[in-house]
Design brief:
Elements lengths: L2 H34 L11 E10 L17 E10 L6 E9 L4 E4 L4 E4 L5 E3 L2 E7 L16 H5 L5 E8 L4 E11 L8 H13 L2 H8 L9 H24 L3 E5 L8 E3 L3 H38 L1
């Protein structure tokens, strides 16, 4: 084995070892986090990283249609692949893909929560795969509704279409960053709120001068700045009263920390074993990479020791 072959082999084996180890630890951490996080009710959920479970509801006045099948849904993700290549290298290659950014509306027995799916690990139960001869399926050839021999054999055209959807009424497991806006659910700090109002007003400095520059010299002196601070304090308290009077709005999105953000049609009783099996696969890849690295180094260094 020459030096170039050895370098390539070591690059592959070390990458497999490190990548497999990282994947194993990541999946174990995620499985442990899901197991240790209790399911919360929407009305009583704490602010921060929480786990919810309920059913998906339709969004009022929102009409969402899946791009490949033309079916109405709440969220979609699709992929179009073309079977191409030469000889043994022929395989399906992605030519188009897309994902919905429509917010989801989750409800349990205590309330509702809007979910921003961007950045989430989304796992819908509804998934269709079918084949055709055009880059986009014809509208009169909808996605299959069940098992077919043609689908199993992978025939029927050079293009393969994959579409996943969330449907109204489906159960949904969600774990992510939970926040309640309005309804007095957020702590009120007068000094912080006052500062936020002043910073907002400073963005339109010309308007600030028109309101508080009494002597019209183009600057705000100490007394005028004091008037700005008093007015901002009044504005901050008024906004707080309006927030308390408004109905609470619950939202979930991607966590700021490196925690999993998962939306799944199946609960964590399915996800935790799945993550553990993936961790086992990562561990096996790590061990295989380590053994391959040791074998390559031994084969290279052994002749040198003679």
């Amino acid at each position: 084995m020459d030096g170039q072959q050895l370098a390539f082999g070591l690059c592959v084996s070390v990458t497999a070892c490190l990548g497999g180890g990282w994947w194993c630890l990541r999946r174990l951490h995620q499985a442990r986090l899901l197991a240790d996080t209790p399911t919360s009710k929407i009305r009583s959920a704490a602010q921060g990283y929480v786990e919810l479970s309920g059913r998906l509801l339709e969004q009022p006045e929102a009409v969402i249609v899946a791009p490949l099948s033309g079916r109405s849904c709440l969220w979609w993700r699709f992929r179009v692949e073309k079977y191409s290549g030469n000889g043994e290298s022929r395989r399906y290659r992605v030519v188009e893909s897309g994902c919905s950014e429509a917010w989801l509306r989750l409800a349990d027995a205590t309330g509702e929560c809007l979910i921003d799916p961007r950045g989430a690990d989304v796992r819908p139960a509804s998934r269709d795969v079918w084949y055709g001869d055009t880059p986009r399926p014809l509208w009169n050839r909808r996605a299959p509704t069940g098992f077919s021999l043609l689908t199993m054999l992978g025939g029927g055209g050079n293009f393969r279409y994959t579409e996943e959807r969330f449907q109204a009424g489906e159960s949904l497991y969600a774990i992510g960053d939970f926040r309640t806006l309005g309804g007095g659910g957020q702590a009120f700090d007068p000094a912080v709120a006052q500062g936020a109002v002043i910073r907002e007003w400073k963005r339109d400095y010309r308007g600030l001068l028109q309101r508080f520059d009494a002597d019209r010299n183009g600057e705000l002196d100490t007394e005028e700045w004091e008037q700005v601070r008093r007015a901002a304090e009044v504005e901050a308290h008024q906004r707080q009263r309006q927030a308390v009077a408004s109905p609470a709005l619950n939202q979930m999105g991607r966590p700021r920390e490196a925690h999993p953000f998962i939306l799944s049609s199946l609960g964590k009783t399915h996800l935790i074993p799945h993550f553990r099996w993936q961790a086992l696969g990562g561990a096996a890849l790590c061990v295989a990479g380590a053994l391959a690295t040791a074998w390559l180094l031994n084969g290279y260094l052994h002749p040198l020791a003679r």
